[in-house]
Amino acid sequence: MNIGDWLRKWSQLQPQKHALIFEGRPFTYREFNQRTNQLSHLLLGNGVRKGDRVAVLLHNCHQYLEIFFTLSKIGAILVPLNWRLAGPELEFILKDSGSGVLIFEPEFEEVVATIRPNLNLSNGNYMAIGEPHPIWAVDYEKAISKQPVHEPLNQGSAGGEDPHIIMYTSGTTGIPKGAVLSHRKTFFNVLNADIVYNLTSNDIVIISRPMFHSGGLLVEASPVLYKGGTIIIRKRFRPREILETAQRYRVTILELPAVVYQFILQECDLSRYDLRSIRCYFTGGERIPVSLLKEYLNRGITLSQIFGQTEASTIAFLSAEMAGKKLGSVGLPVFHGEVRIVDKSGTDVNPGEVGEIIIRGPTLMSGYWNRPDLTSEAIREGWLYTGDLARVDEEGYFYIVDRERDMYISGGENVYPAEIEKVLFTHPKVFDVGVIGVPDEKWGEVGKAFIVLKPGEIMTEEEALRFLRGKVGKYKIPKYGAFVGELPKTASGKIQKFILKEWHNKAKP
Q1: Residues 73-107: tens digit of each pLDDT
Q2: How do 53-57 and 77-80 pair as beta strands?
Q3: Residue 217: which domain range?
Q4: Which of 57, 227, 247, 315 has the fewest CB atoms within 10 Å distance of its CB?
Q5: How many folded domains does the chain comprise?
Q6: pTM (predicted TM-score)
Q7: Distance in Å from the first CA to the final CA of the chain
């Protein structure tokens, strides 16, 4: 089944059921499906065909999901863009993916305008959602309103191994790489999530994670719509508004990053909200402090953990029934997939020993867009090597120990030090640099840059961090900077970042 068929089916089975609610405005399954049909006719009329890439630079909104299902119907490929990225980063992704259409909102007009001269897109291939919009962009709402609401006849017949999404994630090279997610991957990810959440058409779920992430789009929104449930779309994480929304709409499942659960405790009095409709609370995507899990347990709330990554979606999950007994665990492997923890030789480790998580199965990405070299490095003999270190207990429950790669998570966002190092290296005063993630009470982790200056140069911490503004996303800019005489390195020249972490720990008051 084509992913886009879900809406067509539900629009027939429960046409008046609310599929989406955005800023207080409900959309029934019939209306939702009709709007995707209108957008399908528009894009097909503009020459978009199966396999073409359409990029999206939007906050969470109902149109995001319209575009998602529309592209599924016509066989085109969605390229979600992280709106926190700087102009040069967005330009790279648009060019690398070969995106022929860019849909954005007025808030991002300035950054789009700066990179527009470098993109080979005609004015008709820029679409703006909202007002005011530039004259060089098509008005999304006005354009689709002129289109018919019936199912498009010239559909792309996409499905199975056909690419569905190219989701960009950076790596240790500092260069973004596009994980190609097929229709097959999306479908089996949804089946896994259905088992995790035990979904029904009566479920009501808040979607507040950004939908440019697999968490918001594929782990939260898609499974609920597959089961005919209702999703309430929020643009941003605001603790009080999330609780008020959960109370007002009788939300049944709440999934939030750990940092938001922390903000809720800091800013809100949970006893003032009626949250009895919520049958399960989930979190994932970053390290979860055991102390936070205990704080919620003391309030009678059990936080279940989900563990995964873009290339494989959900890898393991911890049920609510076991969350209190297995504090700190990310749970058991998903149903559709095989998961192992192996040593350097590829041999399964014994319980209690640390190894790398590897996974194979129908939820794996097809590979990295135009990067067969990186694909063969990540997927070996059908197994995806995640780069995450973990141990397993006697009952088969997984515990994440650390990340083999240097990536850290700040406020729910993946940050790759190589990206920051690459930019700092361009500063004329900088000779060498190494960036690590360090613990932070507010954001979970933040960056710290260890900088070696060229002989005779002087630089302040503020000057170094200011240099990054506009060159990388704001959330990637380190919180701290430190100047050292040299960086610890191996014989092959690789920075020994564990020593940098030791330096940071020794420097703490």
Answers
A1: 999 999 999 998 889 989 999 999 999 999 999 99
A2: parallel
A3: 204-403
A4: 247
A5: 3
A6: 0.84
A7: 58
